[in-house]
Design brief:
mainly beta; Immunoglobulin-like; about 425 residues; Jelly Rolls; 9-stranded antiparallel beta sheet; single chain; 7-stranded antiparallel beta sheet
Amino acid sequence: ARSTNVGAVFSEAMDATTITASSVTLVKQGTTTPVPASIGYDPTARTVTLDPTSDLEASTSYTATVKGGTAGVKDTAGNPLAADDSWSFTTAAAPDTTPPTVTSVSPVESAVDVSAGTSATATFSEAINPATVTSSTFTLSKEGLGVPLAATVSYDGATRTATLDPGLVLEAGARYTATLTGGSGGVKDSAGNPLAADKAWTFTVATGSPVAQDSFTRTASAGWGAAETGGIWSILRGAASNFAVDGSRGTISTPKGTVEQSAHLASVSTRDVDARVEVRFPATVKGSRNVYAFLLLRSQAGGGHYRIGLALTPGGKILVRGQTDTGTSLFPDADTGLGFSAGVPYVLRVQVQGASPTTIRARAWMAAAPEPAGWLVTATDSTGPLQSAGAVGIRTLNDSSTAMRLEFDDLLATPLP
């Protein structure tokens, strides 16, 4: 240790007056000047102690010497030590008190057009304690949301790099902030020194050109006319007279009695897509069955499709339901936990990605509230005819005892990587 004292034990009682800073010395190797120190002698233990006035230098070799001969130490009878007695030692390395720093991040600070499938990484200036790199100390948040995304966090000791994998496709055009936590509860190096402060950086996900977009600002009757992006709406099921656009929303008058109404953008052909739409239910459900508003994805000319949508129950619950065109469930109905209010817009967002299997993700929220950080539902499906590209559309179904006019707004579908 750098604070160590140097000691020597004699074979017999010594003359204390001969044990001085001249006869007992400590010298840093490579120099000739003794280290300033106090010298003490314990006659009971026959021990001399050299106590340096300050800590020794770290990682440094020293030589201690007890001088012999006429000018050296003598016993109580005046006999001198026959010859100098010297020994050497090396002090320990200085303790690491330097906090680690982040030397590089990815995506770089303020990056734009970042791939929606990206992971966030950070490389450190020194080895980090892997146990301190967790989903609590390395987070990723979408701007406007206070809750970090659920993610997998790992650390590679060989490259000193931490990686955060969101495990999902990030939202096109959205701005995200990655944060490494500093301080006592944050990331620490292998010596226990924490990052001095939080390290945060932002990036923006690329905005893919939408394959379908409709804000329904036109007016139309006996159909929905042409979307802003995606071409003409084609009626698939139901009477054209049930479809209209009132200048702010697309409406579908949905008769009672389980009569399907649906339309899609036939000129759109996309397989991997992130789609969202606002839905308004006009009133509570009467009777004992539900009313549905679905997004159609991978809609085929022959009628095949995935349909994932909102179900309003007689009890006022908003559920997410997913099916194939044959009615086969993609996942159990999922309760959004949202309370129902007539005419209030709810946002449904769905992703379908990959093939054999296709991964399906869905979540819903009130339009006036922040978008949730995680997906309410994640499922996979490998139904053969639905593993290829198709159109984007809307479907309603009314199992209740009263006809309803459902309203839709701000449809947006962007391709996924």
